From TrEMBL:
<protein>
    <recommendedName>
        <fullName>Glycolate oxidase iron-sulfur subunit</fullName>
        <ecNumber>1.1.99.14</ecNumber>
    </recommendedName>
</protein>
<dbReference type="Pfam" id="PF13183">
    <property type="entry name" value="Fer4_8"/>
</dbReference>
<dbReference type="GO" id="GO:0019154">
    <property type="term" value="F:glycolate dehydrogenase activity"/>
</dbReference>
<comment type="function">
    <text>Component of a complex that catalyzes the oxidation of glycolate to glyoxylate.</text>
</comment>
<keyword id="KW-0249">Electron transport</keyword>
<keyword id="KW-0411">Iron-sulfur</keyword>
<keyword id="KW-0479">Metal-binding</keyword>
<dbReference type="GO" id="GO:0046872">
    <property type="term" value="F:metal ion binding"/>
</dbReference>
<dbReference type="InterPro" id="IPR012257">
    <property type="entry name" value="Glc_ox_4Fe-4S"/>
</dbReference>
<dbReference type="Pfam" id="PF02754">
    <property type="entry name" value="CCG"/>
</dbReference>
<keyword id="KW-0813">Transport</keyword>
<dbReference type="InterPro" id="IPR017896">
    <property type="entry name" value="4Fe4S_Fe-S-bd"/>
</dbReference>
<dbReference type="InterPro" id="IPR009051">
    <property type="entry name" value="Helical_ferredxn"/>
</dbReference>
<dbReference type="GO" id="GO:0051539">
    <property type="term" value="F:4 iron, 4 sulfur cluster binding"/>
</dbReference>
<feature type="domain" description="4Fe-4S ferredoxin-type">
    <location>
        <begin position="61"/>
        <end position="93"/>
    </location>
</feature>
<feature type="domain" description="4Fe-4S ferredoxin-type">
    <location>
        <begin position="11"/>
        <end position="39"/>
    </location>
</feature>
<dbReference type="InterPro" id="IPR017900">
    <property type="entry name" value="4Fe4S_Fe_S_CS"/>
</dbReference>
Length: 436
């Protein structure tokens, strides 16, 4: 065990780990503790392990890596903690220490693959778009239907087969929003907003981005697409790659500052949470922290601006029952809870039914459901039982990861013909009569 990593972990987390009074309020809020039933899968258990590692009593890689890696990072524990332990910061520092420890030794093959993809794919929007274009060709060519008919994917990888089924029909790449575009407000201009397109949404779910822009212009927002924006850095930060996350954050801050916009809007709970914590990312860099603070003050989720500048001009009625699954990071980090519900409850003709476990993670967790598929599915299957109780015909989400996870849940239920999953803006656009 490297003494410098232990000392760094002690310096960055020890005081915070001592804030935990081991009361156990976090246990029922933690999806991995509920599904796994062991203390090392709970927030207080992980905090205690970080403390022991910071004291040099356990090995960072051997004893800390697995429990930390199995954390979804949903941060529901922070909401219920009576003494406000900053679990998110402890988690990020632990991941950074683990990443450093693994780089000093022979890292596992999966770690190397993950690191390669993070360093050489996600920071490059053009490469992400290329992957998205290939996915469109894959669907359009009919090759996807051939694989389903022959059950080829199911035979070589049941996990990959399940994920292939969650991908919705993709729009032609020419309909993707272009960097540098400006969309004028319809009617009176109430505000100028800069739109953060995201990685996965821009590459694959770009229809959601187009509809987001439509809705913003309908409520009087001029929308600009900053040309030099990049990945928000969340995937890097969550994997302990802090310097890489900072590099991306600096690029985004500069790009959005140049836009001259009043607000910086996004439609992905996870991305928005990262953007709202840029000031925390630069705690040790005063100049950048000041710029990050100004940036953070301008960040808004799409639902916030639609409520602020609405009402939306609804043109149609919605038939059926709607339920809503919170994005953990939208709810627990951004504290945006009421606005999506307010919008859904205002939809004419719709019946809104609150999901009893809406505040609990669906098991997506960024790329958690790819790295820990079986653990993720245990959480998802419980969630789908709660959704079944609502008798909903439409599940609404506000994050691409949650959206794909819920589509997979519907598929696993065998309810693909009776339940649809939509992003919030997709549903709102439909009742506003927005055509693609």
């Amino acid at each position: 065990m490297n003494d410098s990593q232990v000392e760094r972990l002690r310096k960055n987390t020890y005081q915070e780990t001592n804030q935990c009074i081991q009361c156990g309020y976090c246990l029922p809020a933690c999806p991995t503790y509920v599904s796994m039933g062991k203390e090392s899968a709970s927030p207080r258990g992980r905090i205690n392990l970080v403390k022991l590692a910071a004291e040099g009593k356990i090995d960072i890689r051997e004893h800390l890596a697995e429990p930390i890696d199995l954390c979804l990072g949903c941060r529901a524990c922070e909401v219920v903690c009576p003494v406000n332990v900053p679990y998110g910061h402890i988690l990020e520092q632990a991941k950074e220490a683990i990443t450093a420890a693994e780089s000093q030794e022979d890292a596992p093959a999966m770690t190397k693959i993950k690191s390669f993809l993070l360093r050489h794919l996600f920071p490059y929007p053009s490469r992400m778009r290329f992957i998205g274009n290939l996915a469109w060709v894959y669907q359009k060519s009919g090759f996807s239907r051939f694989l389903k008919r022959t059950r080829f994917l199911e035979r070589i990888s049941p996990v990959l087969d399940q994920w292939e089924k969650t991908l919705p029909p993709l729009s032609p790449p020419k309909k993707r929003v272009q960097w540098g575009e400006v969309f004028p407000a319809k009617g009176e201009t109430k505000a100028k907003v800069a739109f953060f397109t995201g990685c996965i949404t821009d590459a694959l779910l770009y229809r959601t981005n187009r509809l987001t822009i439509h809705l913003l212009t309908l409520v009087g927002c001029e929308v600009v697409i900053p040309a030099q924006q990049n990945c928000c850095g969340a995937l890097f930060s969550h994997q302990g790659m802090t310097e890489e996350a900072k590099k991306l954050a600096r690029a985004n801050i500069e790009a959005f500052e140049k836009s001259g916009a009043d607000y910086y809007v996004n439609n992905a709970g996870g991305c928005g949470a990262m953007l709202r914590e840029y000031d925390q990312l630069f705690k040790d860099e005063p100049e950048w922290q000041e710029r990050a603070k100004r940036f953070v003050q301008a960040v808004r989720d799409i639902s916030e601006l639609l409520v602020q500048f609405g009402p939306l001009p609804f043109q149609k009625e919605w038939k059926g029952i709607i339920t809503y699954q919170d994005s953990c990071h939208l709810r627990n980090v951004q504290k945006v809870i009421n606005e999506p519900r307010q919008l859904l409850q205002s939809v004419p003709g719709a019946t809104y039914v609150e999901l009893k476990s809406a505040d609990q993670c669906c098991g997506s967790g960024g790329i958690y459901n790819l790295l820990h598929f079986q653990e993720s599915m245990k959480i998802l299957d419980v969630k789908m039982k709660d959704i079944e109780e609502t008798q909903a015909t439409t599940i609404v989400t506000t994050n691409p990861g949650c959206y794909l996870q819920m589509r997979l849940g519907v598929e696993r239920m065998g309810a693909g013909d009776s339940i649809q999953t939509l992003h919030l803006v997709e549903l709102l656009a439909k009742v506003c009569g927005v055509e693609e």
